[in-house]
Amino acid sequence: MGDWMTVTDPGLSSESKTISQYTSETKMSPSSLYSQQVLCSSIPLSKNVHSFFSAFCTEDNIEQSISYLDQELTTFGFPSLYEESKGKETKRELNIVAVLNCMNELLVLQRKNLLAQENVETQNLKLGSDMDHLQSCYSKLKEQLETSRREMIGLQERDRQLQCKNRNLHQLLKNEKDEV
């Protein structure tokens, strides 16, 4: 099922309060049940996005949230948020420097992703504009092609009529020659 873990956070007070929480061995987010309930229910449009994300960690699941984040971050190659104590105890202390460095690295990655997303959106707009221009050119060329085909058919008909008239005139000329 799970085990009891104790984390000492020196930043909580001058007395270095200890946080104890029952943690689960499952690799699920501490707010997974809450998230499933929220996703299944209809979310009002006026609800703030921050209130949806703030449900991840509550006063009751701080240690579980930190453990989950530690597992996820180490999975992605970040250093552990915990500092192993040098004694034989299995007590792990939260390393604030590691937390801050991970947060900074995540913010840098977020900025890079936003920049990349902006570049992709700009490129998509350019490509959309190019596509519209090409479709417009295609429509104009198609109209020109149809106009040229109609003109060609008209000229072929005129040529045929002139050839018939020419044959008739040749026949008349031949008849006139024969009479003379």
TrEMBL record:
The keyword Coiled coil applies. Residues 131-158 form a coiled coil. Pfam families: ADIP. GO terms for cellular component: adherens junction; centriolar satellite; ciliary basal body. Transmembrane segments: none annotated. One of its GO terms (biological process) is cell adhesion. Keywords: Cell adhesion, Cell junction, Coiled coil, Cytoplasm, Cytoskeleton. It is found in: Cell junction, Adherens junction; Cytoplasm, Cytoskeleton, Microtubule organizing center, Centrosome, Centriolar satellite. Belongs to the ADIP family. This is SSX2IP isoform 10.
